[in-house]
Amino acid sequence: MASTYRVLLFLLSIPLLSSFISPASSQHEHPLDPLTPAEFSLVRRAVMRSYGASSGNVTFQYVGLDEPDKPLVYSWVSNQADKIPPRRRASVVVRFHEETHELVVDLSSRQPSVVSKEVYHGHGFPLLTLEEQTAASDLPRTHDQFIRSIEKRGLDMSNVVCSDSSVGWYGEQRSRRVLKILAYYTNGTANFYMRPIEGIDIVVDLDLMKIVKYHDRFTTTVPMAEHTEYRLEKQHPPFGPPLKGAAVVQPHGPGFEIKGHIISWANWKFHLGFDVRVGPIVSLASIYDLEKSRYRQVLYRAYISEVFVPYMDPTEEWYYKTYFDSGEFGFGLSSVPLQPGADCPENAVFMDGFYAGQDGIPVKIPNVTCVFEKYAGNIMWRHTEVEIPDQIITEVRSDVSLVVRSVSTVGNYDYILDWEFKPSGAIKFEVGLIGLLEVKAVNYTHAVEIKEDEYGTMVGANTIATHHDHFLTYHLDLDVDGSPNSFVKTRLITKAVADNSVPRKSYWTVSSETARTESEAQLRLGLEPCNLIVVNPNKRTKVGNDVGYRLIPGPIASPLLFRDDYPQIRGAFTNNNLWVTPYNKSEKWAGGRYVDQSRGDDTLAVWTKRNRKIENEDIVLWYTLGFHHIPYQEDFPTMPTLSSGFELRPSNFFDRNLVLKTKSPEPVSPSCKH
Questions:
Q1: How many whole angstroms separate alpha carbon 607 and alpha carbon 305?
Q2: pLDDT tens digits for range 503-543
Q3: pLDDT value at position 315?
Q4: Quick one: how far is CA 523 from the chain centroid?
Q5: Three-state secondary structure call for residue 361
Q6: Average pLDDT of the chain?
Q7: Does 672 have pLDDT greater than 70?
Q8: Distance (Å, whole) CA 328 – CA 130
């Protein structure tokens, strides 16, 4: 959702123009590297050339790497010195004369050119650009009816801010590419989300870029600015609680190395990319096995595929607020520059990200990701032994991990995204929800006055914070010690003790089932205890177990909407907490290719109806991390971080504890130089 904050970020982002641009070199660092500024410019030039004199009507909605086929990537990785890298291609979506066009641009030829161009005739529209969101949000300020509506409420137009909202789909047979515009009041606070101007219904047609519907339905009290400000310089004593500073000192520099987009640390090596739609992408994660003296594959490609955020107010003013943050607004497009020493510790190293603006010109997001070693005082493993006569044995290893972090700010919400690699072989995925609640204005000033469901919590006078969900669906393409894998569900089953000679009556044991097809792997978690394991049935440990990695879910939250409710039809990929599909390069986005006003006919839930074979195949896990958010007053005016996550952990992948011989980091004493 565009706002003055997003506009400022867009203006701070750096458009990049090259005076000399050469075709993509065959010496490109890595076939999964994101497109470079020079490549974005080459794409723009090739696309504009293909449209000729009409190129002025082209808008770039998405430009990203056309990912090479997996076998080609692995072939290149296994023997880089002797192999020519796969051809560099860009996947492009443009709007042209109110149509969506899909193009592929070959960047490896002497003169990059469009090698494929098709008109999309299906349902849904492409990713929204910042520029069109900003232009749509600016329209009401010069619209006569809106000006009169603001005057009628006794408000000052100079303090009015507009933002945009996607409209969803509710059974319409035909759809125009439209947004709704929401109005807020900033007088006395930067936290305009806490001061909504209710009752004004504005619809903008993006292709025409004009207001096509306006209705001033009612007026209600605009909440006061008091106690809504979050900027530190606007706060007043008393302050607290006081917190003392600490420093991470690395006199020999960081323990990791970054070469291009390849990050090496401890026993891990992986590739870090960036995409305007999904944000950070971790690829080719492999871990070094000391006993086998080689790196072993764990993860081919992982990212947040879609984020579904339905609000629970079914009234005329709110029912349509069911956002798809990746497919509509872009998790990468919404990424923000990280602040050194605040978003990331002082020992962090930062990387920039790039995307194509609406005009195709590359735009830089500085410090879009940070990488740092995390010293949190955790314990990697320990044991104290006192049972051996005349001995006390204590062995402790302090834990260090490597964190890759980014932040996406989609309208009022900030998402902190952490990927944490541990020397034990585990990868932890954590999401922190933070930011500003989405509220509606009411005439009540005290909760005792509320006599009917207002679909939220009163967090301040005249202010209801609405119930809502966050569902983040991860695409996890595991290649556990190779690509042919199987998914095994290991249930914990209670059994009666058959031996009457012992007093125990019961115990639990395990029963493992290997999913043969997609339908057998679809799971709604939390109903029974189980382990979820991806195994390589073609590789075994020394004692004969299938090597594997297991997914350890976080707190379980499943959708509560009716499955035939329109938002849930579009968000049907959240119906299960876990899905398993055979690898298909085209199946990247759980909500479908074109999510804005989509109709649910191109989602993960639809793909899996083919019920394809997944046993001993190249498979992909899709795991949904969910939050049911009932707001509380402590979330007002800005909420402290609410975190959750999950973990991928080796399960018979190694023959023994991987970090048994790992030494704790040596103590470091900071030195002061005068």
A1: 15
A2: 999 999 999 999 999 999 999 998 889 999 999 999 999 99
A3: 96
A4: 22
A5: coil
A6: 94
A7: no
A8: 11
Q: Residue 518 has which token pair?
A: 């997609």
Which residues face 397 on adjacent strands?
Answer: 381
The secondary element (H helix, E strand) that includes residue 365 is strand 362-374
pLDDT of 338 > 90? The answer is yes
Cβ neighbours for 261, distance < 8 A, ≥ 6 positions apart? 29, 30, 32, 33, 34, 271, 272, 273
One-letter amino acid for residue 34 of the chain:
P
Active site residues: 325, 413
The CA R_g of the chain, rounded to the nearest whole Å, is 27
Is the pLDDT confidence value at 4 over 50? no
Q: Residue 614 corresponds to which tokens in the numbers above? A: 């997944």
- CA pair distance 65, 534, nearest whole angstrom: 28
Contact (Cβ atoms closer than 8 angstroms) between residue 428 and residue 647: yes
- Report the interhelical angle of 130-138 vs 4-12 (nearest 10°): 140
Question: Which amino acid belongs to residue 156?
Answer: D
pLDDT value, residue 6: 47
Res 647: pLDDT: 98
Sequence-distant (≥ 6) Cβ neighbours of residue 606 within 8 angstroms:
572, 600
Asked whether the predicted pLDDT for residue 55 surpasses 90, the reply is no
Closest CA to 80 of 224, 271, 219: 271
Question: Which runs of E-coded beta strand occur in 479-616?
Answer: 484-496, 506-514, 530-540, 546-552, 578-582
Q: Which of 368, 406, 61 is nearest to 206 (CA)?
A: 61
**Nearest residue to 153 via CA among 178, 180, 185, 189:** 185
Return the percentage of the chain with pLDDT > 90, whole number: 89
Residue 14's contacts (CB-CB under 8 Å, 6 or more residues apart) are: 363, 364, 366
pLDDT of 252: 84
Minimal CA–CA distance to 546: which of 458, 616, 605, 618?
A: 616
What are the C-alpha distances in Å from 431 to residues 307, 310, 646? Answer: 12, 18, 9
In whole angstroms, what is the distance from residue 354 CA to residue 107 CA? 17
Query: At which residue do the structure tokens 């679809």 appear?
Result: 522
Contact 118, 35 (CB under 8 A): no
pLDDT given for residue 37 in this prediction: 97
- Within 10 angstroms of residue 378's Cβ, the number of other Cβ atoms is 11
Q: Which two tokens stand for residue 229?
A: 């400000």
| Cα–Cα separations (whole angstroms), residue 326 to 278, 330, 390, 591 | 6, 4, 62, 9
Instruction: For residue 331, give every residue at least 6 positions away whose Cβ sits within 8 Å of its Cβ, in sequence order, or none.
Output: 277, 278, 279, 304, 307, 325, 408, 410, 415
Decide if 209 contacts 184 (C-beta within 8 A): no
pLDDT bucket at 484, cuts 50 / 70 / 90: very high
Q: What angle do CA 25, 27, 32 make, to 5 degrees?
A: 90
| Length of the chain counted residue by residue | 674
Share of the chain above pLDDT 70, in %: 95
Tokens representing residue 522 in the block = 């679809």
Residue 671 above 60 pLDDT?
yes
Burial class (CB in 10 A: 0-12, 13-18, 19+), 93: buried
DSSP state of 87: P
φ and ψ at residue 154, rounded to 5 degrees: 70, 30
In the block, residue with structure tokens 């759809």: 175
Amino acid letter for position 172 = E
Q: What tens digit of pLDDT does each residue of 278-315 get?
A: 999 999 999 999 999 999 999 999 999 999 999 999 99
* Structure-model confidence comparison of residues 130 and 5, the more confident one: 130
In sign, the C-alpha dihedral spanning 231, 441, 2, 406 is positive
Alpha-carbon gap, residue 593 to 609, rounded angstroms: 18
Residues 6+ apart with CB under 8 A from 253: none
E strands in 497-616: 506-514, 530-540, 546-552, 578-582
